[in-house]
């Protein structure tokens, strides 16, 4: 059951400022024969946390905010009682458990109300003119009067009121079956309000991106069925998966950080029971934010949050799928993507293009953004490189359009086929700042340094240089997957410089080059990478070759020795042609490398490739006499 407020009529018309008299009554929503119920629900902003006003509830004074008090004055009828649900009054704000329970009912409360009253506030900034012009535009389908600058300013000021930025109102109007917009003394039906505002977009197109999502929800009220969906004991509007709702609305405002999640649960098609996301005001924001991220991605990702900040550092293995070529936005984002790397992951040869249609999100996608998939995640992510990390633009991209030149693609099935996740991603998810501001925020460096890849060195100067170099190297590898070779080369050079500095710090008196820097060989870089503990030593590329196979074939004796010293390397690993590291070394005539491999005592000397050739046959056919003698045991 819930509580409802009975707002008593004004007894004496000559005393409009008389004390507001109310009663609270218990009410059950469980009548199966009712669609809507005979109460109204108020949608408003609390405004300041100060409560300078009071209302009388059966002789007891209850402190309320100034905005709620003016709303009640406006709604109080001169003759009739009014039955209204109002969160600040009908929920005991001192009881955290009751808050959590009632919040779970809010989708049902607003959906069963006979009408939702949207209170925008008192008359100000020509708001009466703005409301009337919006009504006229809806009725006449004319934008002539909207070209007047004074009217434009009035409407713009109205649509910038705090109500349009509050996150709770999204669920309130998304659940509503009938909406009445009230500002001062003027009232407009919700659907008519949306029609008029849409006309105004023609005069001020910049406004659309600010309020299009909430206008979309208001407009849909009259088309909704007169009941709310119920799933697993909870009321749900089943509008979108939670990840998409977060992408769309996380920049909306809330008094408490946790409400940025709780306010969207009633609109979500996901079940929050499985992810420790049910409203509980005793749970701190840091823990809820971590639970949310692991729910949207997977439990295995590393997550670091801090205090009440709306930002997190996420680390995970993943793979690059493709890159945004172009984007066109209206009420949705139509994203043209080229998939260069995804075919390699699936064993295909040819890249392909696809057009994704996505719901418009709080952060704007732009050309060059990267589409990736984290290990364990069900949906792809759209990210943007920034220095030595990536920023998340969309954490859960769910394409509605799936068209390619070859026909439609079932993306969910296709993504499940990917089993290789060769890249390390360090990601920043920021709910508070736009992507354009992120690159200038030095505070990220502090947060990132607390989540070093090289944890054993995290408190040393070496660790700082080495970790940053490793992160830059990881970004370079992602760019390389996208065939952005020039950008990748630039990042690799940055990483090499970082390794040089780290190497110099580790060895205080190394020999100096003519430029005053420590010369760094390939083996020194590999040695430093191995120290990170984050190198997958037997990772295979698209041809099935491991790092040992590549360096053995390239004749890098010192690097082969380093890899063998780890005792973890698979010395007889075969590539797609069936060749082992020994086969490649023998084929290329690298005598010292062959000797190192034979010296382990674990190498399969007579291993045959798919054409039946052994290392000895390769050495003979290529004329490498010294290697032939070594393999025959006569060298």
Automatic annotation (TrEMBL):
Keywords: ANK repeat. Gene3D superfamilies: Ankyrin repeat-containing domain, Tetratricopeptide repeat domain. Residues 39-172 form the Heterokaryon incompatibility domain. It comes from the Eukaryota. SMART domains: ANK (SM00248). ANK repeats lie at residues 577-601, 611-635. Pfam families: Ank_2 (PF12796), HET (PF06985). This is HET-domain-containing protein. It comes from Glonium stellatum.
């Amino acid at each position: 059951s819930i509580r409802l407020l009975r707002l008593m009529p004004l007894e004496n018309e000559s005393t409009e400022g008389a004390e507001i008299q109310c009663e609270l009554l218990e009410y059950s929503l469980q009548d199966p024969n009712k669609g809507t119920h005979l109460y109204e629900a108020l949608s408003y902003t609390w405004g300041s946390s100060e409560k300078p006003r009071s209302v009388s509830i059966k002789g007891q004074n209850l402190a309320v905010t100034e905005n709620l008090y003016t709303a009640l004055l406006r709604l109080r009828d001169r003759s009739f009682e009014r039955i209204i649900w109002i969160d600040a009054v009908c929920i005991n704000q001192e009881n955290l458990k009751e808050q959590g329970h009632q919040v779970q009912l809010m989708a049902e409360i607003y959906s069963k109300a006979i009408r939702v009253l949207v209170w925008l506030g008192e008359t100000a900034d020509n708001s009466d003119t703005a409301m009337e012009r919006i009504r006229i535009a809806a009725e006449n389908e004319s934008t002539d009067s909207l070209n007047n600058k004074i009217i434009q300013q009035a409407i713009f000021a109205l649509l910038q009121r705090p109500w349009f930025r509050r996150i709770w109102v999204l669920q309130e109007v998304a659940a509503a079956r009938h909406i009445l917009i009230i500002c001062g003394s003027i009232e407009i039906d919700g659907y008519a309000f949306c029609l008029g505002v849409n006309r105004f977009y023609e005069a001020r197109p910049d406004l659309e991106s600010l309020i299009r999502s909430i206008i979309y929800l208001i407009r849909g009220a009259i088309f909704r069925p007169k009941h709310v969906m119920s799933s697993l004991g909870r009321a749900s509007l089943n509008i979108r998966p939670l990840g998409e709702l977060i992408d769309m609305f996380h920049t909306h405002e809330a008094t408490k950080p946790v409400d940025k999640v709780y306010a969207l649960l009633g609109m979500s098609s996901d079940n929050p029971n499985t992810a420790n996301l049910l409203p509980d005001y005793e749970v701190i924001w840091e823990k809820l934010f971590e639970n949310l991220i692991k729910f949207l991605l997977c439990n295995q990702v590393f997550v670091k949050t801090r205090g009440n900040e709306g930002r997190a550092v996420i680390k995970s293995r993943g793979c690059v799928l493709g890159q945004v070529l172009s984007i066109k936005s209206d009420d949705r984002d139509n994203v043209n993507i080229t998939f260069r790397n995804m075919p390699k992951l699936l064993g295909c040869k040819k890249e392909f293009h696809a057009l994704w249609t996505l719901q418009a999100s709080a952060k704007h996608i732009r050309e060059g953004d990267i589409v990736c998939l984290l290990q364990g995640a069900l949906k792809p992510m759209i990210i943007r490189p920034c220095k030595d990390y990536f920023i998340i633009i969309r954490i859960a991209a769910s394409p509605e359009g799936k068209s390619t030149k070859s026909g439609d693609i079932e993306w969910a099935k296709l993504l499940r086929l990917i089993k290789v996740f060769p890249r390390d991603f360090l990601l920043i998810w920021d709910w508070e700042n736009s992507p354009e501001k992120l690159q200038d925020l030095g505070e990220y460096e502090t947060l990132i340094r607390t989540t070093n890849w090289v944890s054993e060195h995290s408190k040393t100067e070496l660790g700082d240089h080495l970790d940053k170099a490793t992160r830059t190297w990881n970004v370079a590898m992602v760019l390389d997957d996208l065939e952005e070779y020039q950008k990748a080369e630039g990042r690799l050079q940055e990483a090499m410089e970082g390794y040089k500095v780290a190497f110099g710090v580790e060895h205080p008196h190394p020999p100096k080059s003519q430029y005053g820097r420590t010369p760094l060989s390939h083996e020194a870089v590999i040695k430093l990478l191995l120290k990170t503990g984050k190198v997958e030593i037997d990772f295979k590329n698209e041809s099935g070759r491991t790092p040992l196979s590549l360096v053995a074939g390239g004749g890098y004796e010192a690097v082969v020795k380093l890899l063998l010293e780890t005792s973890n390397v698979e010395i007889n690993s075969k590539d797609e042609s069936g060749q082992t590291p020994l086969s490649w070394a023998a084929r290329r005539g690298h005598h010292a490398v062959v000797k190192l491999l034979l010296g382990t005592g674990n190498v399969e000397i007579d291993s045959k490739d798919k054409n039946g050739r052994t290392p000895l046959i390769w050495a003979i056919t290529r004329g490498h006499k010294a290697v032939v003698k070594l393999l025959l045991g006569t060298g």
